[in-house]
């Protein structure tokens, strides 16, 4: 198992980080965790850009657009988070596990 963790960018309202939870020749599985800050949030959107050679191929438990520059937002059931609470979702990507900087925006 390969573990690659990003350094979260904290906006005050929420933070997010990607962990590589599995890897194989030519691809890997990532888990992205969104954590609410000191106040409850009703929704979240995360964005990041993969480096050249890494492309998102599928995802679950989020509404995702883009393959290299990725934007993802919550589903109805995983957007409302109490202060300090977290929600996770997953994806598959090509290339080697990487740790891009992830930006989280709360709504």
Automatic annotation (TrEMBL):
Listed SUPFAM superfamilies: Carbohydrate-binding domain
Domain of life from the UniProt record: Bacteria
Transmembrane segments: none
GO MF annotations in UniProt: hydrolase activity, hydrolyzing O-glycosyl compounds; polysaccharide binding
InterPro entries in UniProt: CBD2 (IPR001919), CBM2/CBM3_carb-bd_dom_sf (IPR008965), CBM2_carb-bd_dom_sf (IPR012291)
Domain CBM2: 7-107
One GO-annotated biological process of the protein: carbohydrate metabolic process
Protein's UniProt name: CAZy families GH5|CBM2 protein
Source organism (scientific name): uncultured Thermobifida sp
